[in-house]
Design goal:
Chain lengths: ~190, ~190
DNA sequence: CTCCTAAACGAACGATCGTTAGGGTCTAAG
DNA sequence: CTTAGACCCTAACGATCGTTCGTTTAGGAG
């Protein structure tokens, strides 16, 4: 993919994140690149292509984040690292992450189904961390892992709305995890 | 507000939630109501009005939910009830809640600022539950309430994406709260 | 029967939408 | 000097957008 084409995708992701897919016109995009709108069609076949590519980039980034989590650690640690990875992707690729999380639903046809499969796979990988942790005793054995993964993934998925691009995401993830690990109530024995 | 006008707002919220504000045309809306699109302008002044009203209904519903939380309970209980209230609003008024959480940003002019103020107020009320709880000793005194409220509100705000309309939201809120209260790690003394 | 009101009709408006077509300019390699 | 390819331009296409407006319809009240 040519350098120009990459720039196009990046700018498209930025505008889609800022104004939404349907709120961004090809004309807006062309203006942002200092070009006539017809010129864009030397690089793309349709506006949908740009959405699709941004979503795919997001999927790749999130999965790559999980790939880097070592699998020889206790479940708690792996969850903490997975949370770190997720928040880092959101902060470092905020536009792409926003499109992945919020604008994907304007994908048409097979591409919407493709996204859903990709997202389900991501959630499944997350869920496995909790399930394994419970089964191996790293986490409490009576853990409601269904609810736990929903809680964590919800927080992760909502992060794009408030995470500043320059945030210390590792520290933030650790703070979230600390609450998640021992609770807010304070009857827990100190670690 | 006439009955017809109320119906219009409800249908608009439904479509905005389903296809997004910019993804819904006045023509779509008219067709859903079995009417010519020009006819809608006997009831509204602009498409923006419909968005604004849906957002305001959402704000009202969420605040009303918090209003019903008794203030003579320990902080933990109040948080649990606040979570119940929030999820109940999402499930019972899914369309309006979705527009409030996701589509508000297409509000123009002063109305966007008005929304932001309203949301900030809601978050502040939530935050107070955690802060008070920590200060009074209902919650652990070393609680990171900033992170805690972010975690809870994130989960609450993301709920519209997965909450089925017929879910038992009270039970779900309690399950979330149970995890939040004692953590996932299992070193907590049983309650 | 007449009057009033709420509601919808149907045609049209200017603007903007995504997309296409054909031609022009530059650069770098053969 | 020629060729190829990347990049962009201008002009236009049919479709759809939100909105306006004068007219029509239906039902209830007087």
């Amino acid at each position: 993919m040519s350098a120009r084409r990459t720039e196009l995708t990046r700018e498209a992701a930025r505008l889609f994140a800022e104004r939404g897919y349907h709120g961004t016109s090809i004309g807006d995009l062309a203006k942002a690149l200092g070009v006539q709108k017809g010129s864009l069609y030397a690089h793309i076949e349709s506006k949908q292509d740009l959405l699709y590519e941004a979503v795919r980039e997001g999927a790749e980034a999130f999965h790559a984040g999980l790939d880097a989590v070592r699998d020889d650690l206790p479940a708690g640690e792996r969850i903490r690292l997975a949370l770190r990875a997720h928040l880092r992707v959101v902060a470092e690729q905020l536009d792409v992450a926003t499109v992945f999380v919020r604008e994907w639903r304007y994908l048409e046809g097979d591409r919407a189904a493709e996204f859903l499969a990709e997202r389900r796979r991501y959630e499944e990988r997350f869920r496995a961390l909790f399930r394994d942790g419970r089964e191996r005793g790293d986490l409490r054995t009576d853990l409601d892992d269904q609810a736990a993964v929903l809680l964590v993934l919800s927080a992760a998925n909502w992060a794009y709305t408030w995470l500043p691009a320059d945030a210390d995401t590792d520290e933030l993830a650790d703070r979230f995890y600390a609450i998640l690990a021992d609770g807010i109530r304070g009857y827990a024995t100190p670690r």
